[in-house]
Amino acid sequence: MDWIDFAAAFAAFFLTHSLPLRPAIRPRLQQALGPRGFTLTYSALSLAVLAWLVAAAGRAPFVPLWDWAPWQNLVPLAVMLPVCLILSLAVARPNPFSFGGARTATFDPARPGIVRLARHPLLLALALWATAHVVPNGDLAHVVLFGTFAAFAVIGGRLVDRRKRRELGADWGRLRAEMARSAPIRRLVGHADLLRLVAGLVLYLLLIGLHPWAIGVSPLP
After folding, report:
1. CB pairs under 8 A, 24+ apart, for 202-209?
2. Contact 150, 133 (CB under 8 A)
3. Are residues 54 and 77 in the same domain?
């Protein structure tokens, strides 16, 4: 029965992440909820289904693929710091290259921030998070869970590139060329970005502290 719950959670995850974004559905939802309301509702739904999926993986029958060792906890512990920093630098930043970019019309290719390093920083953070969590979770359900997320992030980036290249037309190449000529990333960090980095560090510490309560397992070795 627990495998059925796991499969149902997976199906719900992909349905809730694909159907609301379809061209025939998204404009209607945005008209009914408003752009901000659509984003908030979609984000809340995504988090709820993700929580269900993670919990379902924990309830699935335990099928070991490799033995756990204390050092394995160090992998996500180390990788989650850059993940949190990437998230803090990317959230609500104008990004015409990726999905759900906020205020894309205000994007300045001369000061692209994290977008200069990755067109899809949120997907990059997802791929790093998922890959790092495979290491200390060597059972079948969690390998399927995190492995699917990692593949979803990589394939999703390519699909978004294809769609955005079609939508932007000639602006795709122009923006990328202008962005490549921008200053090195260390010179693009302003006061707002420093605050974002601090927020990312706080998020990292919060995740460490809340992990035992939310997930039931301490991330510390």
Report:
1. 203/84, 203/87, 203/88, 204/80, 204/81, 204/84, 204/85, 207/80, 207/84, 208/77
2. no
3. no
C-alpha 190, offset from chain centre: 24
Same-domain status, 100 and 194:
yes
Burial 178-198 (b: 16+ CB within 10 A, else e): ebeebeeeeeeeeeebeebee
Residues 47 and 89 grouped into a single domain: no
41-91 confidence digits (pLDDT tens): 887 888 888 889 988 998 999 999 999 999 999 999 999 999 999 999 988
Which tokens hold the place of 164? 């955005």
Q: Name the pTM for this structure.
A: 0.86
Question: Where does residue 12 rank: exposed (0-12), middle (13-18), buried (19+ CB within 10 A)?
Answer: middle
On whether both 100 and 19 belong to a single domain, the answer is no
* Owning domain of residue 23: 1-61
Q: Do 53 and 109 fall within a single domain?
A: no
Same domain membership, residue 98 and residue 51: no
Report the alpha-carbon distance of residue 95 to residue 208 in Å, rounded: 29
Which 8-state DSSP code applies to residue 96?
A: T
Q: How many domains does the chain have?
A: 2
In this structure, the number of other CB atoms found within 10 A of the CB of residue 159 comes to: 10
